[in-house]
Amino acid sequence: MSVSAYLDIYLAKKAGFVFSAEKIIRCMLDNGWRILHKEVIFFLPVGDIDEYDWQEEKITENDFFVEIVKKKESAKEIIGVDLYWKETEVGVSMLMFPSYELSFSASINRMSIDLPEISLKKKINITDVSWYLNAILPCFETVELSVSKYVFSQTC
């Protein structure tokens, strides 16, 4: 059974804060997430307009911000990058829209709760929503940012 799970986040900025894709991604990096995985970064390249042709490249974090993020933000393109939790293999694919709305797909070794068979006579695989909320939402509760709304959804 294929499961798709998404966390959509709408950010609110506090007085004086200017949104920037780099600042938002760095909020994640400052709170336990990383973009480098096995010496590569997985991202949407510059010029990718609604094709979602993810690329994998051996690139430094700094080069990623300068060569990819800043250029995509200037062109008002959707920014996409895979993020991994600390030293684990658990991750999310993050999309950042030009409006700075964020969408996280729990598609990389998704954390789940395996419920035992009850009266349904089958195992139910449910995304561990609490894990994702605890790992992602605090990243955006800063002096400059806050989460104004979030929606978590799962389809099977």
Describe the structure.
By secondary structure, this protein is of the alpha+beta class. The protein has one domain (about 30-155). It contains three helices and ten strands. It has helices at about 20-30, 60-75, 130-135, and strands spanning about 5-15, 35, 40-45, 55, 80-85, 90-95, 100-110, 110-115, 125, 145-155. The strands form three sheets. It has a six-stranded antiparallel sheet with strand order 2-5-6-7-1-10. It has a two-stranded antiparallel ribbon with strand order 3-4. The longest helix is centred in the middle third of the chain and has 14 residues, at about 60-75. It is globular and about 50 Å long. The model has no long low-confidence stretch (mean pLDDT about 90).
Secondary structure layout:
Blueprint (H helix, E strand, L loop, with lengths): L3 E10 L7 H9 L3 E2 L6 E3 L11 E3 L3 H14 L4 E7 L5 E6 L5 E7 L3 E4 L8 E4 L1 H8 L8 E11 L1
Antiparallel strand pairs: 1-7, 1-10, 2-5, 3-4, 5-6, 6-7, 8-9
Report the sheet with the most strands, covering strand number, pairing sense and barrel closure: 6 strands, antiparallel
First-residue to last-residue Cα separation? 7 Å
- Give the overall form: globular
Low confidence ranges: none
The count of strands amounts to: 10
Widest β-sheet, arrangement of strands = 2-5-6-7-1-10
Radius of gyration: 16 Å
Helix content bin: 10-25%
Structural class: alpha+beta
**Total domain units:** 1
Percent of residues in beta strands: 35-45%
Number of helices: 3
